Every structure is written in structure tokens, then in C-alpha cells.
From TrEMBL:
GO terms for molecular function: diguanylate cyclase activity. Transmembrane segments: none annotated. Keywords: Phosphoprotein. It is an enzyme of class 2 (transferase). Pfam families: GGDEF, Response_reg. This is diguanylate cyclase. The keyword Phosphoprotein applies. GO terms for cellular component: plasma membrane. Its EC number is 2.7.7.65. It catalyses: 2 GTP = 3',3'-c-di-GMP + 2 diphosphate. GO terms for biological process: cell adhesion involved in single-species biofilm formation; negative regulation of bacterial-type flagellum-dependent cell motility; phosphorelay signal transduction system.
Amino acid sequence: MNGEAQKVLIADDDGINRQVLATLLKPDHVVLLAKSGEQALERAQRHLPDLVMLDVMLPDMDGYEVLRRLRADPATAHIEVIFITGMGRPEDEARGLKLGAADYITKPFNSTVVMARVATHLQVVRQRRLLEHLAHMDGLTELANRRRFDDIYAVEWERARRHQHALSVAILDIDAFKQYNDHYGHPAGDRVLRAVAREARSAMRRPSDLAARYGGEELVLLMPETDAAQALFVAEALREAVAQLLVPHERSTVSPVLTVSIGGATMAAGGAEDAPALFDAADEALYRAKESGRNRVNWRLECAPSDS
Ligand SMILES: Nc1nc2c(ncn2[C@@H]2O[C@H](COP(=O)(O)OP(=O)(O)OP(=O)(O)O)[C@@H](O)[C@H]2O)c(=O)[nH]1
């Protein structure tokens, strides 16, 4: 995450200024260019740069208006903006900063100072991203945490409903994990949880798939645009992959090695269950997988389409 070059959008109607700034920034950053306010907004929305270097005087709208519009759109609201301008009066600078600009640089500028300020602001962006990432992550398994799952689940459920896509969700529970902890110790239990999490992560092949840690020893899998047959296949492969880790579990009544049970449910394209009902169906399927002997996958094949 830290190694990627950060994107800087330079919005200035003066070709020479654009060139000078681009030459300074190109060695270490991905540079995008815009000549007008409209172009700056369009590029910002499309490329989501980390930082915008914004001239106050643009032909179609002033930089303050560009900044206001960036802040008004949730997708671009958090992009850092540095004003870079010939208007050096303190009131101009105060106005820019009040609107939420990170910095204000007056022309003619000193290249070394510009570079240093850009580096400082990009560092802040990097640290903020890292904090956001950590806030969404479970520390033990490095999977997404429950909060992250709940957010993504709500978004994907709504997307599936709107576009009439299938949506599959599964809950995985380690079998006889209490006995594992009791017999092998909690640190060994943690190692096992991490190993199962690694398998869950690698079972999630598509970019929109998500594996998350839902609670103590429960993981959840979210598979958008995946019908019941495909999701069941993935879940079965994951169950098998965990068994194939061949982690000895002397106290399990299910198998001599560590196993998992998985319950899943699929909202069929056009189905109209609500998001909690789909999750409850997966939970119910997990309960049945446990009840019928563990080390198995149980699927609620299709959620009933709505009557309406
Ligand atoms: N090592 C470790 N154990 C955890 C963690 N979170 C929860 N657990 C343990 O997971 C166990 C869950 O136990 P139960 O809910 O009884 O489930 P189980 O023994 O797997 O029984 P079945 O699911 O019915 O097969 C408890 O012993 C918890 O202490 C964790 O982060 N690390």
C-alpha cells in the first residue's frame, strides 16, 4: 500500500506553470493535468488523486469554486488541495484555508519549498490511508473486520437488488475450537485462526469477493454476482483446503484434523429478501451444518423471491 506512487492533479490554465510543476513532480508521482475548473473536477472524479494543486484563477470558475465542488461530492471530499496562485494577499490565503485547503503557495514559487510542502501533505494522506486501513482490519487475521463487512454487505446487497444480481454470503465456523484452545493453548488457537483466515482469503478470487472476521472464531464470505452453485463450489473448496492443512486436533470428535463448518445462502437475481434475512439464512444453514455432523457445507440454495 505504501509503495505505490501517489497521484497529483495540477490544475492551472497557464501551460508553462503546468509544465514546471509537472517536471518537478513527475519523478516521484503520477501527474495528471487540467486546464480549467471543469476539467479539474472531471479528472478528480475519474482518477481520485491524492492531492490537487489548484490555481485560483481558472478560465471557467475560480479555484475556490472548484474546491467547494470537490468538498460537496463524497467521492472527492477528502482530496487534499493546495492552492498555488499569484494572489498573495493574506485575505486570499485565509479564504483558501478556511474553505479547507491544506496549504497555500504563492507564485513565483521556490521549487524546493513546493516539493517539500507537497511531500508533507502526501505523507499526511499516506498516514490517513494507513489508519483507515487499520480501522477496517482485524488485527489477528488481517482480514476485514466486522464493521468493514457490515458496510460492504449493505452496499453489495443494495447493488445486487438494484441490478438484479445474485449475492451469496457464507459463515464459516471452526469445529470444536473450544477444545482446540483448551488442549493446545490459546496461542496455538490463534495460529490456527490465522491459517484458516489465509485459506479464506485465497478462496476469494474475484476483486469484489470479501472474507472478513465476524467474531471470535467465525469468518464470513461475501460473494457478489455469484449464484448458489458457484458459491457452494467455493465454500466446499475452502472446507476441503482447511482439512488438507492437516492440523492435528486430538480432541475433535469430528475428525483427527482441524475442520470447519460452513453455512451459506444466496439471494437469487431478482429475489427480494432483505439484507438481514439473507444473513440469517446463512446462519441457519451453518446451524444445520453443525447439527448434521460438522465438517460440511450447508446451503440455503435460493432465497425465496418476493411475492410482490
Ligand atoms: N485462540 C483463539 N480462540 C478464540 C478467539 N476468539 C474466540 N476464540 C475461542 O473460540 C471458541 C469458540 O467456542 P464455541 O463457540 O464453543 O465453539 P466450538 O468449540 O468451535 O464448537 P462448535 O462450533 O459447536 O464445533 C472459544 O473457546 C473461544 O475462546 C481468538 O481470537 N483466538
